[in-house]
Amino acid sequence: MTAADKQPILVIPQLIVGLGNPEPKYNQTRHNIGFAAVDALSRTWQIPLAENRKFQGEFGEGIAPIGGKIRLLKPSTYMNRSGQAIQAVTSWYKLPPESVLIIYDDMDLPLGKTRLRLSGSAGGHNGMKSAIAHLSTQDFPRLRIGIGKPKGAGNVEESGTVSHVLGRFSSTETQLMSLVLQFVVECIELSLKQGVEKAMNRCNSRTIDTPES
Predict the structure, then answer these.
(1) Active-site residue among 31, 125, 134, 164?
(2) Which is nearest to 13 in space by CA: 211, 151, 199, 207?
(3) What pLDDT, on a 0 to 100 scale, did the predictor assign at position 3?
(4) N or C: which end of the chain has fewer CB within 10 A?
(5) What span, in angstroms and rounded, lies between the C-alpha atoms of 121 and 124?
(6) φ, ψ dihedrals at 69, nearest 5°
(7) Are the C-beta atoms of 175 and 134 separated by less than 8 Å?
(8) Is residue 31 flagged as an active site residue?
């Protein structure tokens, strides 16, 4: 059999991780959109999340809409140590890195955009740096959710970037993000059904707009 004859390996997530910071003061911030996405999956699929000390986070296990077993995780380790919690789950269940789909915020993507990828670098994101370090590879799927850049981004100092990332969405942005999170659920369900590679076509080509626009 030649390389050309080989079918691409179907990547189906078995663990979905949302990145964020655990303290109440970080609730609903842009940097915690990964947590919000896992909360949306938990609600939609009716898989409750509970604090799990062994896994260093809020964890839930259940059956996904397409019938397979799925696990959800929100690490409570703080962003820059997210990989510890991810590794705790993958080691316990003996999951390969490519079965872990990580959802996180991306300032380089505008609001309303999502990007699904099979692999890639951390792109400066501390949570992803930790995930890559603990999984010992960057070959695992990830879904980035655009949070946009701060206004006048070209002139914004480091402190302005931090306050943007750790700030909350405006009321209009919150409306938009609730539509984005619905779309994220669709994208992940498609990944479970047809594999991440096929889901990429749909998830990367669409921009979500507010109803008014």
Answers:
(1) 31
(2) 199
(3) 46
(4) N
(5) 8
(6) -75, 135
(7) no
(8) yes
- Report the relative pairing of strands 50-52 and 15-18 from DSSP bridges: unpaired
For the chain, list the domains and their CATH numbers: 12-205 (3.40.50.1470)
pTM of the model: 0.91
The reported pLDDT for the residue numbered 4 is 46
Q: Is the CB of residue 121 less than 8 Å from the CB of residue 187?
A: no
The helix/strand count (H/E) of the chain reads as: 6, 7
pLDDT in tens, 130-155: 999 999 999 999 999 999 988 765 55
DSSP letter for each residue of 95-128: --GGGEEEEEEETTSPTTBEEEES----TT-HHH
Closest CA to 102 of 65, 137, 127, 123: 127
- State which residues of the chain have pLDDT below 50: 1-6, 156, 213
